[in-house]
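Example (one chain per record):
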Amino acid sequence: MNDSLYRREALDNAAPAHLGVVARLPNVQVLAATVSIASAIAIIAFLFLGSYTRRITVTGILEPRNGVINLRSSTPGKVEKVHVSPGARVKAGDPIFTVTTTRETERQGDESSARLDRLLEDRRRLHAELAAIKTSFAEQESALIAELTTSRTMTGRVAAQRTLQARRVEIKRGILQRTAPLVEKGYVSSLQYQEGESDLLKLQSELESLSAQLEKSRQTEINLASRLKILSNELTEKLGLTSNQLSSIEQSIIQTEAERAVLITAPFDGEVSNILMPEGSSTLTSEALATLLPDGDALVARILVDNRAIGFLKVGTPVAIRYRPFPYEKFGLHQGSVSRIPSSALDTQAFMRLPGQTPTNSVYKVDVDLPQQSITVYGRSEHLRAGMEVAADLHLDRRTLAEWIFEPIIGMKKRFDVDGSRHEQPD
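Predicted structure:
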């Protein structure tokens, strides 16, 4: 029989243990440990399975695919006249600007104007001489024609008188021939016959006189006709000489006006988008006077991409476009795609000419095709215009979150690897 007041199990439990006391964790601590382990696994999985697409925002403008043509003057001068207004439609060859070039001399002032005035005065003088020559010829020609007409009339009369006189001589000679036998027979006296011969001689003398007058009149006609021809030849010669002088002066006037005023015309059909030089302004050959947009040329967005991002672009890369005149909060984003990537960066001077740009790193002008050439604004279709500013979001390389977080460490390791390979190279 057991004398102890306690049960054996209680005594065994109260006895000192050789291996120590067993400790049990509370349920809250177990749950916290489980959550921590699961969270760590989830974070690691998220870092290695999750990805991040690097995105940059760039700016640019809308331009025709074949570019905007800047009209310039071939010589420095002053804009004398602007023939069109902004937004005007023009055909190839239509005048757009008249630019005058002037050089001042100490005594005569504007050299081109002075030379032009002299040439115009010479032209007026030659025109006056030409008119005087024509008037003088007309008067002389009229006088010669009148004399020639009179001479021809006189020649006709003398010729008619000579014909009649020749007929009288023939008749008188016939009478004498028939009278000669009668004189021999005594029917007609010798005195009468001699008187007949005397009359015949008189008639013959008159016939000779008329023949001489006829010859003289005909010679006068020939002389007058010759003088008329000579006068015509002289007129032709003088007119030719004066015309040559006028042609030379006209050519000099054209050349002087061309040197003094340059007419700038449209090289093709299109729209004058901007007039950069108003009337009266001075211009240099390097300065643009106006911009001309060709007809039928689709607009593209030309964006400026930094050289640190250009390597990740390729044709077809999606681009989210925002048009500055139409806030995207109201009119949304517009999806485009890269259509052309240049092989070289813009030079510094070309980059400095772009509005609102300062030279930092080299940049590339990338073309982006637009989804449409118009945008819906309050229910109506609004055409996009060249020169509108755009902002574009480019989606570049895709990396895991772990690569993005540990990028500095990975980059440092690669630099160490490169440096180590250099040191290992034999001399």
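Caption: The two ends are 98 Å apart (CA to CA).
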